[in-house]
Design brief:
Order of helices and strands of chain A: EHHHHHHHHHHH
CATH topology of chain A: Ribonucleotide Reductase, subunit A
Number of helices of chain A: 11
Oligomer: heterodimer
Shape of chain A: globular
Shape of chain B: globular
CATH topology of the largest domain in chain B: Ribonucleotide Reductase, subunit A
Helix content of chain B: 55-70%
CATH class of chain A: Mainly Alpha
Strand order of the largest sheet of chain B: 1-2
Radius of gyration of chain A: 23 Å
CATH superfamily of chain A: Ribonucleotide Reductase, subunit A
Number of helices of chain B: 20
CATH architecture of chain A: Orthogonal Bundle
Strand content of chain B: under 5%
Helix content of chain A: over 70%
Number of domains of chain A: 1
Distance between the termini of chain B: 13 Å
CATH architecture of the largest domain in chain B: Orthogonal Bundle
Number of domains of chain B: 2
Distance between the termini of chain A: 72 Å
């Protein structure tokens, strides 16, 4: 017997899992993001204390000073789960591939003024080590944070940071092979202008509070680096000096930052809104880490803009700082 | 996957009994994969070498994908069948899911190198083939193309994960000859922990696939015995021998699934999964696949259950089982060379007696008592009055956590332990639990016209 099952009335018993329905109700189908995210993490009756951190449970919201009644309020406005996140990144990778082909086939790098290429190499390449720090820090949030909404998004963000480090590496390779990457690493480790930034990255590597780490890395630091280095320096200054081709090779980074800043802002906003204590805590973190990041980036900005004298670097730093300030205020912080 | 759902593929599976294997998958395996994702995030942050660290980061994301994809594929079944709707909280609360929960939490709370040995080497390298390949081919054979797709896509990552595990273990062993005894101890422990975890897979394989593919015994011989033996031969040069419980595991291939099914059959009143007596045809298949054991040890028991059913006395065990302090399975397994003797082991520590299902589980405890003393054994909790809603006074002199009240009208209890356990565990009585026969799943599947020839469903 062959029948058409679709024509039959088969009424579902429910629309989704109870741990998802808790957040969205059971009167409609969940989105892929909701289904993949809400309530996915174990939350009780843990068997053993971590050998490596016996003062906490395996998953323990007390690892952060931030207090949330429910950590699943930290929703990602980009609604990423593994599938749509990788598809989006694959599209961006294709477009970066095309950019590289465009630049390489027309030998646009060779046609860029040599001193500009040198300057970009000097300013940009050590940032691959910063991105590597961002990779580790977000992986730490994915590991030690509480609730899948927070941790899964951080895990994906961690891989994005690795992608940024790899894009910078590739940029260095076309610019000057492994030699220029070695030089950049040496500068990162030894040259005076980089040392405050390196200290900042290394200090964040030992921050144990997952939400403080989130603020220090994704808001305070990246919130200044990406406007300063990618928008103001490469897309504006370098492009204006005849280096438009170089923007094509870093196109992913500012685009990714704009997108992921939506996630970062959403989390800061909702966490700060939950209580005055949270707002004060996050405000302190932003003030503290933000000021440190600003100071650490100052010598880099000076290197980028003031090679032939002047103080434009300081103006650019102030502009990036202002962008962060504006975001902080929009997110309900009182700096 | 989505086409499968849109075409009501869940109604085209061989039989609604099949869905119960999926229930165990979403209850036991998916949360396990989720925690493995988080575990690798720890390694991806903390391991020293960039190569291994990035491999762990990528595996962390792979495991996230596995848990999300399975959640989606089974989310469709969850709409139409019971026993899936509280999967995450069941993982955290239900007594029979303490086995997978304690397995992953044991690995996750250990140090990074033990975690690598546990998950990358023992679980991914030695055992996941046994979890995925036979069951997923079973899913295909029973018309469930959604789960088949999930399984094979998961398994395609696992080949890579196995390579990471072998590389990591080889690397650790090459670094210092003093590492071999440490790694050996971990292998002894994690092979056995993993093997005990596979009890669920064995049972799914032999009892829960209405259309059979291969038996657990056959799967074990291919994916366990021969693959495992080759692996340990390769590692012999570093002073590694086969894990301690290896021979016990091989000897158990004739018994494991049958003993597990008996547990699930008799405790179906307090589990979010149905069980049943296999049909005569299915028992004939089991006789054929298990000539050494089925007719002699297991058929008579099943036929007795069948007899009870025919006279309206479906057997449920109303007593709390003793659970193994290490693997957290009830103590149900038999001794290696004596299939009619319960393998019950004990150890006294600080004046307390601890109970185990086997020698390897006792050894694991003795090597690391400070860890296993912490285990939150569900049955022990119940005896103290926990795991119930409402929660009784566990210290009262007349407190008794046995389940007779629901089933024995003459039993005079002021506290209905079973109903209170089900309420706490979010199991709806008569819906998620009990025998398959008469269950809403069975009735709905029939009403919906399940397992009729559906055009296009197989393509």
């Amino acid at each position: 017997m062959t029948i058409d099952l679709q024509a039959r009335q088969v009424k579902p018993l429910r629309n989704t899992y109870a741990h998802v329905a808790k957040y969205i109700g059971d009167d409609k189908l969940p989105t892929r993001y909701q289904e993949a995210t809400f309530g996915a993490q174990s939350s009780e009756n843990f068997h053993y204390r971590p050998t490596w951190e016996p003062e906490f449970e395996l998953y323990d919201a007390a690892r952060s000073k931030l207090v949330l009644a429910d950590w699943y309020v930290l929703k990602d406005p980009n609604q990423y789960y593994y599938g749509n996140w990788t598809m989006q990144r694959a599209r961006q990778q294709d477009s970066m591939e095309a950019n590289y082909q465009f630049v390489e086939s027309r030998e646009l790098l060779e046609k860029t003024p040599a001193d500009l290429r040198d300057l970009v190499g000097k300013v940009l390449l050590p940032f691959r080590h910063v991105a590597w720090g961002g990779n580790m820090n977000n992986m730490a949030i994915g590991a030690y944070g509480y609730g899948t909404a927070f941790t899964a998004a951080a895990s994906m963000h961690s891989m994005d940071q690795l992608g940024v480090a790899q894009y910078i590496t590739r940029f260095g390779l076309v610019l000057g092979g492994t030699e220029i990457l070695d030089k950049a690493k040496n500068a990162w480790l030894n040259d005076a202008p980089w040392q405050e930034l390196r200290r900042y990255v290394e200090d964040t590597l030992v921050v144990k509070d997952p939400f403080e780490l989130f603020v220090a890395q994704n808001f305070a630091l990246d919130g200044q680096i990406y406007p300063l280095i990618y928008r103001q320096f490469i897309d504006q200054y370098v492009a204006g000096q005849g280096g438009a081709a170089l923007c094509m090779l870093t196109a992913f980074m500012p685009e990714w930052h704009d997108e992921s800043a939506r996630w970062v802002d959403a989390l800061v906003k909702v966490a700060a809104a939950e209580s005055p204590a949270n707002r004060d805590l996050i405000t302190e973190w932003v003030k503290d880490w933000g000021a440190r990041a600003r100071a650490a980036l100052a010598p880099i900005a000076s290197m980028a803009w003031d090679g032939t004298g002047g103080s434009k670097g300081a103006d650019e730093i102030a502009a990036a700082w202002q962008i962060l300030q504006n975001r902080a205020e929009k997110n309900g912080l009182a700096l | 996957m989505d086409a499968f759902a849109q075409n009501n593929g869940h109604l085209a599976v061989s039989d609604a009994r099949y869905i119960n294997g999926l229930k165990l998958f979403i209850q036991a395996v998916t949360p396990l994969e989720y925690s493995i994702h988080r575990g690798y995030a720890h390694l991806g942050r903390q391991l020293g070498g960039a190569g291994l660290r990035i491999a762990c980061q990528l595996q962390s994301l792979d495991e996230l994908r596995h848990s999300q994809t399975a959640t989606h594929a089974l989310g469709n079944f969850n709409r139409f069948f019971n026993g899936m709707h509280h999967s995450v909280s069941w993982f955290d609360r239900l007594w029979y899911l303490a086995a997978p929960k304690s397995f992953i939490e044991d690995a996750f709370t250990a140090g990074p190198f033990e975690f690598l040995t546990a998950i990358s080497f023992c679980f991914d390298g030695l055992l996941t083939n046994l979890m995925f390949v036979p069951f997923m081919s079973g899913a295909a054979n029973n018309g469930d193309l959604a789960t088949t797709a999930v399984g094979f896509s998961t398994q395609s990552d696992n080949a890579r994960h196995m390579a990471v595990g072998l590389a990591a273990i080889t690397f650790i062993l090459q670094q210092d000859a003093g590492n071999a005894p440490i790694v050996q101890k971990w292998m002894d422990k994690w092979f056995w922990r993993g093997f005990r975890l596979l009890t669920l897979a064995a049972m799914m394989q032999d009892y829960m696939l209405p259309k059979r593919t291969m038996s657990w015994r056959e799967a074990w011989e291919i994916y366990g015995e021969s693959n495992g033996a080759a692996l340990f031969k390769d590692l012999a040069q570093y002073g590694i021998r086969e894990p301690k419980g290896w021979r016990d595991a091989c000897a158990a291939k004739d018994h494991l699934s049958h003993q597990a099914w008996n547990l699930y059959y008799t405790y179906a009143s307090v589990a979010a999964v149905h069980s049943w007596v296999p049909s005569d045809e299915e028992m004939a298949w089991l006789s054929e696949k298990y000539p050494q054991s089925f007719d002699q040890y297991y058929r008579p028991r099943l036929e007795y259950y069948q007899f009870l059913n025919q006279t309206g006395r479906r057997f449920y065990n109303h007593h709390l089982p003793m659970m193994c302090q290490t693997c957290q399975h009830p103590v149900i397994f038999t001794a290696t060379e004596a299939p009619a003797t319960l393998s019950h082991r004990q150890t006294r520590l600080n004046g307390e007696m601890y109970h185990f299902c086997s020698d390897p589980c006792r050894d694991i405890f003795v090597n690391e008592p400070e860890k296993y003393l912490q285990a939150r054994i569900p049955v022990h909790q119940m005896h103290q009055g926990h795991c119930f809603k409402p929660e009784p006074d566990g210290r009262a002199a007349d407190f008794d956590a046995k389940f007779d009240a629901t089933f024995d009208a003459e039993f005079d209890a002021t506290f209905d332990a079973e109903q209170a356990l089900l309420a706490w565990g979010h199991i709806t009585h008569g819906q998620d639990n009990l025998d398959f026969d008469g269950s809403p799943d069975q009735i709905n599947f029939k009403d919906w016209g399940g397992n009729v020839e559906v055009e296009g469903a197989q393509s």
